[in-house]
Design a protein that fits this description.
Layout (H helix, E strand, L loop, with lengths): L10 E2 L1 H13 L4 H20 L6 E7 L3 H12 L5 E8 L8 H12 L3 E5 L2 H4 L2 H8 L3 E5 L13 H15 L2 E5 L20 E5 L2 E2 L8 H4 L1 E5 L13 H7 L13 E5 L6 H12 L4 E6 L1 H9 L5 E4 L10 H8 L4 E4 L7 H12 L5 E4 L21 E4 L3 H7 L10 E5 L4 E6 L4 E6 L11 H15 L3 H23 L5 H16 L17
Parallel strand pairs: 1-8, 2-3, 2-5, 3-4, 5-6, 6-7, 7-9, 10-11, 10-13, 11-12, 13-14, 14-15, 15-16
Antiparallel strand pairs: 16-17, 17-18
Helix pairs in contact: 1-9, 2-3, 3-4, 9-16, 10-15, 10-17, 15-16, 16-17
Length: 524
């Protein structure tokens, strides 16, 4: 029976699934394991539906050079039965297989004598022998394209899609799509040209585009296969979360990669400086520090990379609010609180800045938390406001804002041996746990570094929860890198210096498994 509604399904976007795959690798669940489980689930669906119906079941796999093809290669092994005649047609050259896992499974097929053929261009796809094989097939497995496809389909995949659909139409072949029908946008359900499957076997969770009404004619019946990703894996912050946020465009201009305004300083002038340097090292193009008059020159002396906006008094006062609001309008995000102190007038100024309509994206840390008051009921003008609060457990209990993350549009990063990131969308709550970092990071200033990372990532992301998760992960990993070199003598500045290496390592895809030798963290 075909399901046309999304009732009973939990969904995931293609980008989120890609991030989850990266996190699985980081925490030791390797892609080869997931590919094996995916292939087994495909083979199981075919066995369940066709076992005993025919003396010989003719199965043709039309595979691409990505991981969808690799999943199908595994399925071919598990369909190596007396009653199955399996042939694998690869659209492309085996030398162009895009992952080690797909390459390994292709090699197994060839070394063991499976019937395989490489179709290197459109003309070979259109060959009479290929058409005859597809038309003679009882089952066609579509493994051409995966979830990353968008826009117009190119050759030879375009011809491959047409050939599958023709065999289904003319010979009544049963078509099984691997993860998503080739050509279908797994996020929107739209298709310029796509395989019309009888059955789609998708993995872990339903991709949300598969549930759209416009996708029904391509998806057919939908089955969600468990491929062994633990339920808790989606709760863990990892390199995939960083990749969701940091996507730098080579053609970008100054300011395109984030403009961050930091409001801090007064009694403590080092704190906003650490925040600013962390934001710069995280890739922000433009960072301004609005600091009280008495410390502004000291702050600017720390680095020629810092832009400092001097305020009117020795502490942040309400008189400064209009100047800061005008500066907020020129930046993507405001990070407020580090080193401000807790004078009553400062609290009122912080409150006015947060509540101003110009403050669309706000990160509140340290002393700024004392000025954070959420109007109840939440006013309409707050609908466009998004706040990330970064307290530690002591601040949460002292300020009595334990339930603040239940307020729509507020994300909480509770700092500790295990960081807990949570938010409320109004109808549900998202939670992530970050286990990176070490006991050496109890040194002063690492929280200010985290605030800078949050600000830098929030400046370029429309989702505060994802920005906060990525920041917590990078802060912890950078701390681990600093610990490797400095041990318990690490400083907040050492963490800052490690940030570019961490981002480059994981955004560029050089992902290693989590070290087993790192300092254990408190269990959550």
């Amino acid at each position: 029976m075909k399901k046309k509604k999304d009732e009973g399904y939990t969904t995931i976007t293609p980008d989120e699934m890609g991030a989850l795959d990266e996190n699985c690798k980081f925490f030791g669940l390797i892609p080869l394991q997931l590919m094996e489980n995916a292939g087994v689930s495909i083979a199981s669906e075919i066995k369940k539906r066709f076992s005993g119906l025919k003396s010989t079941l003719t199965i043709t796999i039309l595979a691409g050079t990505g991981n969808n093809g690799g999943d199908a290669f595994v399925a071919a092994r598990h369909l190596d039965l007396q009653w199955c005649d399996v042939k694998i047609l690869l659209l492309g050259r085996s030398n162009d297989l895009r992952t080690e896992e797909a390459t390994r499974n292709w090699r197994i097929l060839n070394e063991c004598g499976y019937a395989t053929e490489e179709l290197v261009d459109s003309s070979s796809v259109k060959a009479a022998a290929v058409s005859a094989r597809l038309n003679a097939s009882d089952v066609i497995i579509d493994a051409l394209l995966g979830t990353g496809i968008s826009g117009k389909i190119r050759e030879p995949e375009r011809t491959g899609i047409d050939m599958i659909n023709a065999a289904k139409r003319d010979s009544n072949a049963f078509v099984l799509a691997v993860d998503v029908p080739s050509g279908l946008n797994a996020d929107t359900g739209e298709a310029e040209r796509a395989v019309k499957a009888d059955l789609t076997v998708t993995f872990h969770k339903a991709k949300r585009g598969l549930l759209k009404e416009i996708a029904a004619e391509y998806v057919g019946e939908l089955r969600v296969a468990d491929i062994g990703i633990p339920r808790g894996m989606e709760k863990l912050a990892g390199p995939g979360d960083l990749r969701l946020v940091v996507k730098r465009n080579a053609r970008s201009h100054k300011g395109d990669n984030g403009r961050v305004l930091i409001v801090g300083g007064g009694p403590f002038f080092g704190a906003p400086t650490l925040t600013a340097l962390a934001a710069l090292r995280a890739g922000a193009d433009w960072v301004t520090i609005a600091a009280p008059r008495g410390v502004s020159s000291i702050v600017s002396s720390f680095s020629p990379n810092l832009i400092v906006l001097p305020l009117s008094s020795e502490i942040l006062v309400e008189k400064d609010v209009p100047v800061i609001v005008e500066s907020i309008k020129k930046h993507d995000v405001v990070v407020i609180g580090m080193g401000l102190g807790t004078e009553e007038e400062t609290k009122r100024a912080v409150r006015a800045i947060i509540n101003d309509t110009a403050s669309k994206k706000v990160v509140v840390d340290a002393d700024g938390l004392y000025g954070l008051q959420v109007p109840m009921p939440v006013p309409v003008e707050w609908e466009e406001k998004h706040i990330i609060a970064t307290p530690h457990a002591g601040e949460l209990s002292k300020l009595g804002i334990m339930d603040i993350s239940r307020v729509k549009n507020i994300v909480t990063v509770m700092k500790g041996p295990v960081d807990i990131i949570s938010d409320s969308t109004g109808t549900s709550t998202r939670v992530k746990i970050n286990r990176t970092g070490n006991a050496g990071m109890t040194v002063g200033g690492t929280g200010d570094v985290l605030a800078g990372l949050v600000g830098a990532f929030f400046a370029i992301s429309s989702d505060p929860f994802k920005a906060a998760t990525a920041a917590a992960f990078v802060n912890g990993i950078a701390g681990d890198r600093a610990f490797d070199e400095k041990g318990y003598g690490l400083l907040a500045t050492d963490v800052i210096e490690a940030i570019p290496r961490v981002i480059r390592e994981y955004v560029d895809g050089i992902c290693i498994s989590q070290k087993s030798t790192k300092i254990p963290k408190t269990e959550f």
